[in-house]
């Protein structure tokens, strides 16, 4: 197999790892909405924390993307 | 004969494709924006400490941060005007972070946390200016910052607790036999903190800017139909502004959480 083809296949496979992060990010907001539905008064208090959860979960997606980019360009 | 003809055509097509891709790479290169070049060559004792475009934008971020804070507070009134509101909001965000996450003992660490926050925030946001350089999109920069935070937090923990600091890796209330598996896990997760902290910021910035340039490249290549990538680009640019501010916030709040762990040992 040529190196270029292997790079593209490797990058594609590495990007599959972002599925988990997609589910995780969806979970953050789904639990936020459930929590507000149960207790509307806690909106601001929880609302400050969802962004931390989103960023930390998104980081995992970006780790997978970095592996894909390394496979493609290095 | 037919099979060799087919492979010859396939080779020619592959070569042409590679050539076209190489030609396209020379004209449209999404990774060119991360290139570091020196503006002022300084060599001392074999070490290359030139003033590069990365250093230039670090200086610009520091200067902009300084002037925003000082201009806001020049005429400090009880009911803040617009500029003073900006300074007070920036101060309030970080002060709230430290108060909520580290507690009262964290007040003495406010200067370094605030400096970190402003540096990363202005580094990210100034990188959104077209033609500028995002110095946080280089792993060495974010890794340097994250290593400093890691070492400082560990030293603070050891200075405060001495050898009792090792209690951090063995949560109280767990039965003694679980220590065999818990301590390595806790140790590895503690040592992975500078890596995750640095790679999170670096990856977000690099991927965001690469995406912007790739979409821009599509807009150029598609000619008249390039309006569609440009429409997407508007949305992605808004997302990138959010990510720039959010990553600065997350970097700082994780620093506060690590400080909390070191000071209060869970």
Order of helices and strands of chain B: HEEEEHHHHHHH
Beta-strand portion of chain B reads under 5%
How much is the radius of gyration of chain A in Å?
17 Å
The average pLDDT score of chain B comes to 86
* Oligomer category: heterodimer
What distance lies between the first and last C-alpha atoms of chain A, to the nearest angstrom? 17 Å
Proportion of residues in helical segments of chain A: over 70%
Helix- and strand-based class of chain A? mainly alpha
Shape of chain A: rod-shaped
* Straight-line distance between termini of chain B: 74 Å
Description of the molecule:
The complex is a heterodimer of chains A (74) and B (266). Chain A has 74 residues and is mainly alpha-helical. Helices cover 88% and strands 0% of the residues of chain A. Chain A is rod-shaped. Chain A starts with a helix and ends with a helix. Chain B is globular, with a radius of gyration of 24 Å. In chain B, helix 2 (53-72) crosses helix 3 and helix 4 (110-126) runs antiparallel to helix 8 (227-264). The longest helix of chain B is centred in the C-terminal third of the chain and has 38 residues, at 227-264. Chain B is mainly alpha-helical. Chain B has one domain. At the A-B interface, helix 3 of A face helix 7 and helix 8 of B.
Please provide a brief summary of the model:
The complex is a heterodimer of chains A (74) and B (266). Chain A has 74 residues and is mainly alpha-helical.
Please describe the structure with a list of short key phrases separated by commas or semicolons.
heterodimer; A: mainly alpha; F1FO ATP Synthase; B: mainly alpha; two-stranded antiparallel ribbon; two-stranded antiparallel sheet; 3% strand; disordered N terminus
Provide the fold topology.
The complex is a heterodimer of chains A (74) and B (266).
Chain A: H1 3-15, H2 18-38, H3 43-73
Helix pairs in contact in A: 1-3, 2-3
Chain B: H1 2-27, E1 38-40, E2 43-44, E3 47-48, E4 51-52, H2 53-72, H3 82-101, H4 110-126, H5 139-161, H6 179-191, H7 193-221, H8 227-264
Helix pairs in contact in B: 2-3, 2-4, 3-4, 3-8, 4-8, 5-7, 5-8, 7-8
């Amino acid at each position: 197999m040529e190196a270029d083809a292997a790079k593209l296949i490797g990058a594609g496979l590495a990007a599959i790892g972002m599925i988990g992060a997609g589910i995780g990010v969806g979970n953050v907001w789904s639990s936020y909405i459930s929590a507000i539905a149960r207790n509307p008064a806690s909106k601001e208090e929880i609302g400050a924390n969802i962004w931390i959860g989103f960023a930390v979960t998104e980081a995992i997606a970006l780790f997978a993307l970095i592996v894909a980019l390394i496979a493609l360009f290095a | 004969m037919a099979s060799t003809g087919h492979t010859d055509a396939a080779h020619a097509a592959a070569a042409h494709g590679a050539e076209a891709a190489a030609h396209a790479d020379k004209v449209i290169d999404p990774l060119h924006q991360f290139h570091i070049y020196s503006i002022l060559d300084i060599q001392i004792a074999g070490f290359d400490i030139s003033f590069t475009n990365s250093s230039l934008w670090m200086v610009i971020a520091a200067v902009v941060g300084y002037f925003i804070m000082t201009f806001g507070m020049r005429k400090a009134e009880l009911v803040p005007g617009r500029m003073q509101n900006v300074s007070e909001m920036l101060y309030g965000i970080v002060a709230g972070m430290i108060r909520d996450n580290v507690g009262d003992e964290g007040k003495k660490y406010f200067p370094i946390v605030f400096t970190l926050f402003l540096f990363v925030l202005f580094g990210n946001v100034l990188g959104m200016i077209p033609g500028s350089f995002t110095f946080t999109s280089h792993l060495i920069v974010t890794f340097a910052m994250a290593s400093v935070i890691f070492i400082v937090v560990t030293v603070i923990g050891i200075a405060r607790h001495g050898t009792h600091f090792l209690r951090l890796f063995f949560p109280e209330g767990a039965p003694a036999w679980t220590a065999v598996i818990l301590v390595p896990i806790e140790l590895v997760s503690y040592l992975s903190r500078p890596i995750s902290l640095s790679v999170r910021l670096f990856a977000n910035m690099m991927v965001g800017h690469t995406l912007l340039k790739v979409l821009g490249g599509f807009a150029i290549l598609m000619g008249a139909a390039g309006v569609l990538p440009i429409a997407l680009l508007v949305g992605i640019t808004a997302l990138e502004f959010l990510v720039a501010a959010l990553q600065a916030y997350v970097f700082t709040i994780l620093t506060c959480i690590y400080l909390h762990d070191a000071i209060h040992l869970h």
